[in-house]
Amino acid sequence: MTSQANEKKVVLVVGAGDATGGAIAKRFAREGYIACVTRRSADKLQPLVEEICAAGGEAHGFASDARKEDEVAALVEQIESTIGPIEAFVFNIGANVPCSILEETARKYFKIWEMACFAGFLTSQAVARRMVKRGRGSILFTGATAGLRGAANFAAFAGAKHGIRALAQSMARELGPLNIHVAHVVVDGAIDTAFIRDGFPERYALKDQDGILNPQHIADNYWFLHSQPRDAWSFELDLRPWREHW
Predict the structure, then answer these.
(1) Which one of 1, 100, 108, 187 has the lowest number of neighbouring Cβ atoms within 10 Å?
(2) Where are the alpha helices (DSSP H) in the chain?
(3) What is the pTM of this model?
(4) Tens digit of each residue's pLDDT (9 = 90 or more) over 131-144
């Protein structure tokens, strides 16, 4: 048997996009973790995997639909049986789609909830079952301002993000005494992404004034949460630029 100290350690990032999710994977990889990253399209993960490997780390990309229970089960089994134990899990699917409540369709509302909330349940449950058997691990959820207050024209997104925060609260209370650290990160502000650069140039112009969130700095906080001693665990962190209104 391999001792815990010598075991390969895996971080699984579900929703490893080009900004926050990718930055989290790279941050953990710098600490020696094998980064397992997922999106629905594996091709979009290749640049991230190559960047981590070029920096001396190890990474694996997986095409997986986090809304499908069978795909989630297969993903976790494949990682645990062929790569290593999942020591840290990050759920980072957003689905931030605006729409007036007067025009929202049942189909789109359900899809947003399915992506941003239900998928969080499926993936975190599958990982938690493995972690509980080992008696260790971190489960970290990416939240948003919408999880604290629902803005106009974001009813579906707010409902999903309120739901994922409630899920995290419940899991933290149940799994904390089992030595599983569950935490929720409220990302309250615009992030340095192509979406903000192209769609909101006036907001992106604040980058040089530290007016938007740097994905690398967000990722540092996820590593901080995972590294916390268990006598002083945080459940929730709020991350926002210094000039962002509460």
Answers:
(1) 1
(2) 20-30, 46-54, 69-82, 106-113, 119-134, 155-175, 194-199, 201-204, 215-227
(3) 0.94
(4) 999 999 999 999 99
